[in-house]
Write a structure and sequence with these properties.
mainly alpha, about 80 residues
Length: about 80
């Protein structure tokens, strides 16, 4: 599993858990309400993941990661010299 996928899944899980806990904290303990709250919180994250121009998950992120890797390699080469 690559880092990008791990980051996306972690984002989904955080959003789901936060919403479900917020609903639970109000006293609503029904599994349907908790599930609905969690899924409602995940929808914006899914929309973000589907956006190819999103700076965290879209094509821009892929381009940025390549450039960051290049800079990191160049920096490590300078330090070893």
């Amino acid at each position: 599993m690559d880092n990008k996928l791990k980051a996306m899944l972690a984002s989904y899980a955080r959003s789901f858990l936060a919403a479900a806990l917020a609903v639970y904290a109000t006293g609503e303990t029904g599994w349907k309400a908790l599930l609905a709250a969690g899924l409602s919180a995940v929808v914006p994250v899914v929309i973000r993941a589907l956006n190819p121009k999103d700076p965290a998950f879209g094509k821009i992120a892929d381009i940025a990661m390549v450039e960051i890797d290049k800079l990191a390699k160049a920096s490590s080469k300078k330090k070893t010299k």
